[in-house]
Design brief:
By secondary structure, this protein is α+β, with helices and mostly antiparallel strands. It folds into 4 domains: about 15-125, no CATH class; about 160-285; about 315-385; about 390-595, Restriction Endonuclease. Helices cover about 55% and strands about 5% of the residues. It contains 25 helices and 10 strands. It has a 5-stranded mixed β-sheet with strand order 6-7-8-9-10, sandwiched between helices. It has a 3-stranded antiparallel β-sheet with strand order 3-5-4. The chain has a two-stranded antiparallel sheet with strand order 1-2.
Length: about 600
Amino acid sequence: MRKPWSISTTVRNPERLRDFLRVLKKLEGQPFNKDNQIKFQILLIQERLYIPGNIPSQFRKYYGFPYIPMPYDVAKEILEFQNYEDPPMRGRQSVNPLNKLGFSIAREGIGPIKITELGNTFLAGDYDIGHVFFKSLLKLQFPNPWSEDFSEKNGFNIMPFIGVMHLIHGVNKKSKKKGLDQTEFSIFIPTLTNFNQIDEQIEKILEFRKEENKERYIKEFAMDFYRMKSVPDKKINNLYDYGDNIMRYFRLTRYFKVSMDPLGSYWNVDLEPSRKVEIEELLGAYNGAALEFESLDEYLNYLSDISKPTLPWEKKENLEKVAQSLRDSALELIKNKNMQISQDEQNVLLTDIHLLSNEQLQKHIPLLRGINLKLKERIKKIELMNNLGLIEEMIRDFRDLKTLRKYKPEQFEKRITEALKIINDEIQIKPNYPIDDEGEPTNHAPGNKPDIECYYQSFEAICEVTLNSSSLQWMQEGQPVMRHLRDFENQHKGDNVFCIFVAPKIHNDTYSTFWISVKHEYDGAPQKILPLTTEQFATLLETLMDMLKEGKRFTHKDLYNLYSAAINKTAGLSGYSEWVASIQETVKEWSERVKTL
């Protein structure tokens, strides 16, 4: 029976792989035998990167209080409590995506555990996640000497990253509808198992677009692919899971543009227009067929070498094409939108590309990408301003808990970021989620940074957002939020620094946790944390909208007055329950006062 390909269903969030790799690094140099396979899984449990289904009651406190260090012996006992038939297999499954993507070499009988050069780049603090996953996914191929999952015997002969590029490029040449929507991507990409199928798969996508009964077409297509007379719904549903998983990995490379609806629940994938030159070079250099290797050692050396494969645009003439394309794009935006740029940006754009060496071009191209991104962000900012329709849409969403449950975390962070930018007089609103070349989030913010950093003339703030409204909210959000704020305070000593915490609902335990920090102290000093429900945040936006309708100006000082009032009132309060009521009262009083100014 045929099977579709996938990247990793073990770790759905690509950025979580870095933590898995960090743990594996502790075992580097040791054999990946059964003992170390079990040890790797125990270490993942110890760091709460893997949570088994059954936690002994005496150990649940480590999950209720995630900041309490878990002893190794406890993690070992938790693993043993699962009574797995093959405990080493769990470690092998956990390391599989790291091996598959070329970040590590860890397999029994292959020698000591090794973190590859690409893997070490991923672990470095200043890594570019787009570059890391681009180099990784460009090497991914089926079949390969390292894995029997997708063999030549089962019809596999594909470099998926390149094959998908060829397929979307071919569809775009034949159809007015560009890219692939979520259903098309999920059905036709995981089932693209051979580069010789690309043209056939393109025709099937075009057929599918004309078909009125989409559900019937999908079932017939699945029966043909699996070579079965009847296909269980689960197998078709799995294709959607694989498609979503592949999309998440591919978009991190910034070579695929993913457009999502505001909730992040429906998406479309196309080739990234700002990398047109590089994509054309890749399509010209590779047809999508898997590369051939004479031995496993040759393949492992290929995986370990970060300089491979050689990129076609690394030649000087091709680097010049990339730089010229980016320069032209920036100049076109400046001209069409009548935009002003800084002297430094002007100097970059006026640089004679042909006088630069190969090494200088490789440094110059990221500067041009940065200018293009800044220009696009400025255009989006202008579009956001005075967009009453968008503000009204945000207000509706923030007040509708059913709608909020449909949001993806990164889309929720984006929505809050947009709302903060609408105020219009910030120095910088800086979300920490990774972005593509269009400035769209590719994932939610990493756990070691605030979700959003806000810089104003008279104060700074971080904004932490979550869709979690459960009783676990205080455990998962309380300590990290206070730690992020303290780190941010230390970076801006002497300044007024706040934290705004936004959630659909705020659990009483979360209020209590923040109350102690605000009223008394966290790590030796009190903090300025203002928890707001999305309903209260909607009131803030509604106030802004009413002022815009009346031609009045809303400034960051109005925000400062709200934040300060809510914090200052704690001096006269005796408990967090009074503070909860006080916040609601303060928001209401502030809104009425601001609108009468």
